[in-house]
Amino acid sequence: MPPRKIIIDTDPGQDDAVAILLALASPQEIEVLGITAVAGNVPLDLTSKNARIVCELAGHTEVPVYAGCDRPLKRALVTAEHVHGKTGLDGPDLPDPQMQLTDGHAVDFIIDTLRAHEPGTVTLCPLGPLTNIATAFTKAPDIVDRVQEIVLMGGAYFEVGNITPTAEFNIHVDPEAADIVFKSGRPIVVMPLDVTHKALVTKPRNDAFRALGTKVGIAVAEMTDFFERFDKEKYGSQGAPLHDPCVTAYLIKPELFSGRFVNVEIETQSELTMGMTVADWWRVTDRKPNATFIGDVDADGFFTLLTERLARL
User: Fold this and answer.
1) Confidence of residue 1 (pLDDT cuts 50, 70, 90)
2) What b/e sequence results for 149-167 when a residue is b if at least 16 CB atoms lie within 10 Å of its CB, and e otherwise?
3) What would the pLDDT profile of 156-209 be if each residue is shown by its tens digit?
4) Tens of pLDDT along 263-306?
5) Catalytic residue annotation
6) Ramachandran region of residue 118, left (φ > 0), alpha (ψ -120 to 50) or beta?
7) 244 Cα distance to chain centroid
């Protein structure tokens, strides 16, 4: 099988960084056509900078990086420095990038790329708020049917919320954008907190990253050392969940994951539950299923894959 063509839409974030590294380490399965940055975990100037830092860390400066939307469609930007630190990549001491942003807007790159490739051959992989994707779909409705699949990290159901009592961060930041994407009619695979909270970087798993002895392995271990403090305190868990790499791992080895094809709708009206992903897990409504909502992961297999691939960089 030829490698799967993807666009990574991202707001790095330490876990975004690991997801990008896993993709760049897996050229037999994944061809990264480009990386589009969006405001989310930190503002756009930092997410677009961090995406380039990660490409340089991986030794893949040929990948174009575009800056996209600097705010949600209809709301003020909410960021997450309290989790990721002031830079978004706090932890390792990584140099400022030498590679430049590619000219043009991320939304236009998404549109042009989908138009340039055969329909059904490009997968979108959003790791942050869905502002860029929704803006592209709204600006160029003709591209929607050309999308092969959307595999995204976002939402929650049984794990409820991590930024509000009912909402996961990525969806909460721009619920209107998420609503557009989930109503697009394209095949969607969702990596919610329900599954990412089972992909915990325990000490032995982080020691395995560090033991690689490479720039990448040590940087990933230091990123996790930094942001696990927040999750350990909040959840009482044995380590930090690696949310976004679940997207990349699914593209490489989908058999590691299981879930249900159900209806998922986004709450955009209630301030109490704004940004909630209302997943009809038990199929108690007659609403048409629109997304594969992942609920479980073989965590040992996930970390074995991740460690083996990071060793290639």
Assistant:
1) confident
2) bbbbbbbbbebebbbbebb
3) 999 999 999 999 999 999 999 999 999 999 999 999 999 999 999 999 999 999
4) 999 999 999 999 999 999 999 999 999 999 999 999 999 999 99
5) 243
6) beta
7) 4
What SS3 string covers the chain?
A: CCCEEEEEEECCCHHHHHHHHHHHCCCCCEEEEEEEECCCCCCHHHHHHHHHHHHHHHCCCCCCEEECCCCCCCCCCCCCHHHHCCCCCCCCCCCCCCCCCCCCEHHHHHHHHHHHCCCCCEEEEECCCCHHHHHHHHHCHHHHHHEEEEEEECCCCCCCCCCCCCCCHHHHHCHHHHHHHHCCCCCEEEECHHHHCCCEECHHHHHHHHHCCCHHHHHHHHHHHHHHHHHHHHHCCCCEECCCHHHHHHHHCHHHEEEEEECEEECCCCCCCCCCEEECCCCCCCCCCCEEEEEEECHHHHHHHHHHHHCCC
In the structure encoding, which two tokens stand for residue 240, read together? 């930090």
pTM of the predicted model, to two decimals? 0.97
Task: For residue 191, give Cα distances in angstroms to 137, 207, 309.
Answer: 21, 25, 20
**Under 8 Å CB-to-CB from 79, ≥6 apart: which residues?**
39, 40, 41, 42, 43
